[in-house]
What we know:
- By secondary structure, this protein is mostly helical.
- Helix content is 66%, strand content 6%.
- It contains 32 helices and six strands.
- α23 (492-504) packs parallel to α25 (526-538) and α27 packs across α28 (573-589).
- The protein is elongated and about 90 Å long.
- The chain starts with a helix and ends in a 6-residue tail after the last helix.
Amino acid sequence: MTIWSSEIKELERLHNSLKDKHPKLELELGKLIKTDDENVVLVYSRRCLEVIITDLSERELHRPRGTEPLKGIIDKLNREEKVPDNIVVSMQNLNSLSTFGAHPKDFDPRQVKPVILDLATVIEWYLKYTGIEESIVKETVVVQEKSKEQDSFRKTPVKPWRRIYLITGILVAVVVIIVSLIVLNITDIGKQVRTKSIKSMIILPFTNYTGDETIETLVSGMHACLISDLKRLSGLRVINTTTSNAYKNAGKSVHEIADELKVEGALEVSVFGVRDSVIIQVSLISAFPEEEILWISDYREEKSQLLNLYNRITRTIADEVNIELTSDEEYLLKESRTVDPEALVAYMKGQFHWERLGTDDLDSALQYFQIAIEKDPDWAEPYAGMAMTWNAIGGFAYGPLTEAYRKSSEYLKKALDLDPNSASSHYVKAVLTVWPGWDWKTGEQEFLKTLELNPNDALARSYYAHLLMILRRTDEAVYQANLALALDPLRPLVLGLYARVMWYTGEIKAALKQSEKALSIDPDNNFAFEAVTNSYLSIGDTLKWYERYRRRIYWSNEKYLVYLDSLFNKDGYFAVIEDRIKVNEEVYNRGGSISFTGQAKRYLIMKEYDKAMDYYEKAYEENFWMLAYVSLVIIEHPELKNNARYVALLKKMNLPLK
C-alpha cells in the first residue's frame, strides 16, 4: 500500500462522479488512480491540471491556451480574478510540484501527498464551476425518487393468484432464454463483452515526459520498435509507423483518430525516464462507443532488455484484446533479444532516409545503417537495411549496377545468417529476387514468408502487389494493395506504390488522388511522381504533366528550364519528350548512367519501336531492375503484342503476354 492511498480514495470518488461528463479529465484522472508509481502520479496530476487550465483559458480568457506555460495562464486568471484565491494557490502548488515527475531523483515521494490533495481541491472546485456537480446532484435525486417508487411498489400487497402468475411467467422467460442460448450457440457473448475484443489498433507516438528533448530520436525509435513487435500478430491489424507519427501533437482524441483510421482501439505510451533504465506507462484504450481504458501498467527495464520488454507487452495486449496466438507467434514472442539502443536509433534513421529514395537520402541511409552495425554487429536488421539500400542505388542508376547488386547480396546473406526468422531479411530477399532477380516464383515464396512472420507489413504487401501486377494477376494485386493502404494510409511510399497499381488497373482517379496525397507529404517520392505524371497523361492533361515533370528536373540549371518552358509552350508535350531523349543519349554516349527502361518508354511514346526495344534489350543484358515491369508496357502500347522482339523478351523473362 502506498503512503498516499487514503488521499487517492478522494480522487476515485471524483473520478466516479466524472463518468461520461468530462471525457478528457476522466481519462487522465483514470490513469492516475490506477498507478502506484510516484512519478506517474505526478505526471498525470499535471495532465489533469492542463485539461482544466486549457478549458479555463477558453472560457474565461476567451483564447486558446496554445503552447503557453501553465504558470502564465494561472497568473492571468489570478490577476483578472477569474478563479478564487485559495484555488489559485492549489493550482500554483500543483503546477510546481508536479513537474518533478519527469526527474525521479529530484523529489521525495512524500511530496506526492500534497499534490493529490491540491488536485482534489482544484477538481472539486472545477466540478462546481462547470455545473457538473449540480447535474450529479440532480441525477442522485432522480435515482432516490425511483428507489422510493420501487420501495412503495414492494410494500403494496400482492394477491396470491397474481404472485403465482408472476412466478410462472418469470420461470417461462428464463427457460426460453436458456433454450435460445443453447440452440443458437451464443453462450460466449458474455465473455466477449467482458474481454472487449479488439481487432485493429494504432500505437500512438510516445509522449516524452522526461524533460529532455535530446532523446526524441530514441523515443521515436522505441515507438517504431513496439509497432514492429505488434505487427507480428496475425489476428490484429496494426497501423504502421509513418501513419502513426502523423498524429504526433495532432490535438485529436483517441476516438477521433480511431474513427479516421477505421480502427477499434489505441495504445498510449508515456516515457518517464531513459537513464540507466527505461520507465514507461502503457495504456490500452478502447475507442468506441466512447474512450475507455481497458488496461494500464507501469514498467522499469534496462535499455538493453527493451525488445524483451516489448515481447511481454505484446503478449499481454494479445490476452487483453482476446487475440489467439499461433504456435509460430508463441515461439517468436518467447525469443530473447538484446539490441544496443544507439544501434536502434541509427537503424530507424536509416529506414527514414531509405524510404525517400533520393540519391542523398540513400547515402544517408548507408551511413546510419553502418553506424547501427558498428554499435551492434550481431543484429540482423541493419544488414537487411544495407542490402535494400544498395539495391536501390543500383536500381535507380545512382551507381554501378554490378557493384551495387554484389554488395546487396553480401549484406543480405549476413542478415539471414544472423536471424533466419527476420521478417525484414525475408522481405529484402523477396525484393532482390524479383528486382533485379526476375525469379518470380522464389520472390513470391519470400513475400509469403515475410507476411507469415509480419502480416501487418504495409511495404511487403505493397511490393507483393506489384509482383502480382507484373504477373498480370490483377485482382490479387488490388487486394494486397488495399490491405497495404489500410495499414499505412499516410506513408508516401505506400501511397505511391498503391497509385501505381491503381494506374495499371485503369483506376486513374484513385491513382491521381493517392499520388497527389503522397507528393503533398513528400514531394520527392519517386513512385508517386511516376504515378501522378502517368495519370495526367492518361486523362490528356499535358499541362499538369509538365508542371510535375518540371519540378523533378533537379539537375537542370535555370537557363535550361527557361529553354524547356519555351519549348513546351511552343511545341507541346512531344517536343519535351524528344528533348529528353536527346539529353539522355548525350549522357549515355559520354559514359554516364541513364535509366534504360525510361529511355525505352520515351521512344515508345514517339513510336520508334526498334530504338525502344534496343534499350529494353540493353536493360536485360545489364539486369536492370525496372525491366521487371516490362510486361505492363503493353497496357499503354497494345500494338507491342505483335512486336516479335517484345514477345521474345517476355518469353526470356518468363513473363505473361496477357
